[in-house]
Amino acid sequence: MYGWIWRHLPGPVPLRLCQALLLVAGVVALLMFVVFPWAEPKLPFNNVTTPTQ
Amino acid sequence: MSYDPPPPQGGPPGQPPRAPRPRPYLPPQTAIPEEPRPRPRPTPRPGPAPDAEATQFTSGFSGSLPPVAPPPRPARPPRPRAADPATEIIAKMQADDYDDYDEYEDDYYDDDADEVAEQPKRAAPVDGPVRKAVRGIGELLITSGLVILLFVVYEVYVTDLISAGKQDDATLALDDAWKADSGSNTVQQADPQRQEKYDLIDGKAFAKMYIPAFGPDYHFSIVEGTTDKNLEVGPGHYIGTALPGNPGNFAVAGHRVGKGAPFNDLDILGSCDAILVETQSNWVVYRVLPMPGEEAGWAEGKGTSKKCEKVAPLKDAANPGTSPYGKTVGQEIVNPTQAEVISPVPHFSGDLPPTAQQVSLMTLTTCHPRFSDRQRLIVHAVMTQFYPKPEGFVPAEMKEQ
Fold it and tell me: Nearest CA of chain A to the CA of B322: how many Å?
């Protein structure tokens, strides 16, 4: 997977490195701002309330 | 990738005679170390006859006896050698080993005449389906591990940052609202004990809370409502429970991990620690009730300290069974379903006493144990002071540690 991506990045190594870092940053941002906020309420970590009557 | 050169050699398959080819480019490696060998040897050998045996051994095991070699040298032969062998011997050893190994391998390939078939395998261990699958699974596992680690970072740190922004916004909005209302507020000062007017809008802050025991900079704006979205902003007031300073139970929920973690240290809050609530026109001081173990002997024990002046077990010592507040203590851990901890009289199932006779309580709820929602940590506090809020007034309780 990672090897395939690396082979398909165009340009010399420094340029590829920049692109790879950009890709990583993009994935991290996607996780942080979309996936995790969606997943979090479904996980049993953070319920702090008791039922109200 | 670095093995690219071999394949072209092996290009025409089934040609064992080509075996010599690898030699031409291996020998250059062997040739280099072999040449230096004769050079150093001739110099020692011309030396005296008695040492001949020793030098032979050292040359025969040139690698294994470097420490033995030096003694004979300084004995007689010319000095220049002393410097030479030290560096050269090491070089030889490595070169010899590799050369032998390579030669054996070459022979093996030659004998089998498989070289053409073998070499491509070595050069390009590429992508059989099994290899691909194993690597894919490995990469997936590593990736999912990293994602889970990242989730922990998100949960514990990033949500803090996001919530801090929301909390600041809520506090600013609250300050603005209070300032805008300050005109009518001065009229209210005439009768501070009267029912305060609140604008309770879901998700909007309506009061601030301070816990001096958690440090002078501990302050949060309390928002109305306890949905996930509300609690991202800050501690949330259970809708329908009493309001600050009023009889009944002013119940507030807050996160313990992440999202600003307002109630992170709720478990270390001790009896008599102050919880201050600032509303638009009043300061309300609550103090944590005695812990379950402290109730017996409270009057002689901790109850004598100054900050516990107005705190006492709510239990009616004479008839603990029937007193409505018999089970209301400073701290308790309950199941998530136990809604009775935030009822006006906690844990009381009989007919509620009339509102005017209810004690003014404050109840904080958060998850327990940390990082889990298996239980709830509950802290009950009782109102001990109620100050109207002239401009710039700060209660003395704020300076407690």
Answer: 23
Confidence category of residue B43, pLDDT binned at 50, 70, 90: very low
List of residues 6+ apart from B134 with CB closer than 8 A:
none
The number of beta carbons lying within 10 Å of the beta carbon of residue B20 is 9
Domain stop point among B102, B126, B150:
B126
**Angle in degrees, CA A38, B240, B269, rounded to 5:** 75
In this model, does residue B9 exceed pLDDT 80? no
What pLDDT is attached to residue B142? 95
Domain shared by B113 and B207, yes or no:
no
Answer whether A23 touches B (CB < 8 Å). no
pTM score: 0.67
Are B214 and B304 contained in the same domain? yes
- Last residue of a domain, which of B84, B99, B126? B126
For the cut 50, the answer to whether the pLDDT of residue B59 exceeds it is no
| Domain assignment present for B164 | no
Interface check B334 vs A, CB under 8 A: yes
Residues of A in contact with B263 (CB under 8 A): 48
Q: Do A31 and B240 touch (CB under 8 A)?
A: no
B7 shares contact with chain A (CB less than 8 Å): no
All residues of chain B having their beta carbon less than 8 Å from the beta carbon of residue A45 are 155, 257, 367, 371-373
- CA angle (B83, B88, B93) in 5-degree steps: 145
ipTM of the complex: 0.90
> Sorting pLDDT into bands at 50, 70 and 90, what band is B91?
low
